[in-house]
Amino acid sequence: MLPEIKNIKLSNQLELQYAEKGKKEGVALILLHGFGDSWKTFGLLLPHIPDSIRAIALTMRGHGDSDKPEKGYRTRDFEEDLLLFMDALRIEKAVIAGASSGGFTARSFALHNPQRTLGLVLIGAPAELRNNKMARSVWESEISKLTDPIGPEFLKMFAGTAVSDRIPKEFLESMTLENLKVPARVWKESNLGFFEEEFPGELNKIDVPALILWGGKDNVADRVSQVLLSQAIPGSKLVVYEGAGHLLYWDEPSSVAADMAAFIDSVMKIK
Question: Which pTM does this prediction carry?
């Protein structure tokens, strides 16, 4: 089943784009992308998710073809949009999956909205970035100095920190086009928001099943941080893909989809 591309206006008047596939009556799985991406970052993953699952990949504010307000790019802004998005689609509960920096929104949503969260999946999600030397270096040397229009040279440098040579060239080119849609102000304010995220903070209060997926060759989130993340979230399970990098849902989409499907099955058995 191919995903349908749709737009929806939220009660806060923002219009967001999303892709959806699977049975409407299936368990809802909402996928949240990382910094600078859009729903299209899940283009390699979506075909592998069973059609019994209602998979929804959301393009968050400021990204892709969703609305780009002047302000509002902190974690709680993205979290509020997600809640309004679920209300607009009349989704009572969903498994929330955050990839890369989208994990900050996913885990914050699970913490503050347990009654709307069936389970939490973190995919290559950093535990924190405020003390991450690479993130700080990229901020100081590149992101803090960005102006519009953003050039492809920056995007090649930014992507080069996380992309393996196993990804199809055509897919990478399509993602570069998506990255170019993000204004400089969104790159800057979102990045500052990530630096505000505390660890472990209140992660010990997350009260939903959690799955942490991580690539052993990740050069953004290291192994120690992932172990600490799994220890901080009660009852969470850490699965390591030793041959994958930061964007493991690009490197090993079939395996990531299978692990998420198995997780959703286990969550529904508990329910």
Answer: 0.96
